[in-house]
Amino acid sequence: MITKIILTIIFLVIMVGVGIYSRKQAANVEGFVLGGRSVGPWLTAFSYGTSYFSAVVFVGYAGQFGWKYGLAATWIGIGNAIIGSLLAWIVLGRRTKLMTQHIESRTMPDFFGTRFNSQSLRIVASAIVFAFLIPYTAGVYKGISTLFEMGFNIPYEYCAVGMALFTAIYVIFGGYKATAINDFIQGIIMLFGIITVIAAVLSTQGGLTQAIEKMATLPADDNPNTNGGFATLFGPDIKNLIGVVILTSLGTWGLPQMVGKFYSINDEKAITRGAIISTIFAIVVAGGCYFLGGFGRLFGTPPLLPNGRLDFDAIVPSMLITLPDILIALVILLVLSASMSTLASLVLTSASTLTLDIIYRDKKSLPGEVEEGSINDTVSEKVERRKVIIMRVLIVFFVIISLMIALNPPTFIAQLMGISWGALAGAFLAPFMLGLYWRGITTSAIWACFVWGVGLTGINMLIGSPINPINCGALAMIGGFPIAWIVSLVSPKLPKSYIDKIFDCYK
Hints:
Mean pLDDT: 83
Order of helices and strands: HHHHHHHHHHHHHHHHHHH
Distance between the termini: 60 Å
CATH architecture: Up-down Bundle
Largest sheet: none
CATH topology: Sodium/glucose cotransporter
C-alpha cells in the first residue's frame, strides 16, 4: 500500500507541476486553447492517443467486449489504430491544420460558423458539444474510480472527486500546453504499463498458448454444449463487432476534442511524423487493452447488478486483483494516466467552446476582409485575459456537472461513451470532413446532420434503446454522409466567391 501511495503522489505532483510550469504560455486565448499552434509531432501524437484511450477503453470497453467477442475483440484495437489514428491523420490532419489556421478557427463550432457563414450553426454546435461531452466524462470518472476503489480500498466517491480536482488544477494553470506535456508523460506510462500488465495476467493462466487453449474450450452463453468461438478469428458475433469497430474508430473523426489536436500542430511536415507515432501508440495501447480483455472469461463470471445483468465494468478489475501490489500500482498509474489525459482534453474542449462560441462570439471575417470587430483587429490584452478567466471558471463548472453524473452513473461505461460518441460524431463527422473537401456542401446540409445525429441518439435513448447504443452511434455516423449529400443537392449553395476564399488555403 505504501508503494502504491508513493507512486500515485509522485505522479500527481508531476502533473500539477507541469501545469504550473506551463502557466506563462496560457496567458492568452491562443496559448490556453491551442498552445500557440506550435506543438510538435511527438506531443501532438501522444496527446491524440492519450485523449483517445482512457479508463472507458481499459475498464469499460475491454471488459464488456472482451467478454462478448473473446479474442476477436482485438480487432477493435486494430481498427482504432488504422482507422481512428492513421487514416484520421492522413485524411484530416493537413487540411484541418491549413483551413482552421486560414479562417482563424479555434474550436469545431467556430469552424462550422465561419466555414458555412452561420453564427446559428456555431451556437448550436457549441451546445451539442457541451451537452454530449458530459456523459463521456462521467464514464471516464467511473472507470478510474472503480480501479482506485479496488487498489486502495477508498470509496468510489472519494476517488472520483480527487481525480476531478487534480485534473482541473493542471488544466486551469497551464491550458493546452500543460495538457500536451502531461499527455506525453502519461503516454509513456501507458505504453510500458499495458505491455507489463498483459504479460503478468497471462502468466497467471500458464502463458499465452495455454490461455488461448482455455479460451477455445469455453461454451457459448446460450448453449453449454456448443463451442462459443471465443478464440476464433472473428468471434461469435461479427455483426455487432463491426458496429463497435466503426463507433470507436470512425468516431474520432467527428469528435471536437480529437480533431482539435490538428489545429495546434506546428507545421505540415509534423503531420506525417505524428501519424506514424500515433498509429504505433494506438496499436500497443488499444490493441493491448482489447487483447487483454479478451481473456476475461478465464477469471470467472462477473457479479450481477441489482437488475440481474452482468456487471461488465467489474471484469477487468477482477483480472487484476490477484496481481502483486507493485503491478497493481502500475495498473493504477496506467489507468490514471489514460483517464486524466482524456478528462483534461474534454474539459478544455467544453470550456473553450462555451467561452469562444457562445459567451464571446467575435464577428468573423475571412483573411483579407478586415472589418470592425473582426478577428483581424487587434484584441486588447484585457479582453484576452477575461476570456481565459472565463474558460478557467467554466472548467470548474464542467468538472462539477460531470462529477455529479459520475457519482450516480445511469448505465455501463460503454453505453455512456456510445451515447456521447454517437451524438457528437453523428452530428459532426460528415459536416466536418465534407467541409474540408467538398465545395458543394451547404449550410442546410449541416443543419440536417445535426438533427440526424442528435435526434437519432436522443430518441433511441428516450424510448429505451431498442437499437443498441453502440450500433446506434455507428449508424448515426455513417448515415450523416448520404444525408449531407442529398440535402446539399436540393438546398441553396453558398456564394462561389465566399467558398473560393475559404479554399484559398489549399493553393
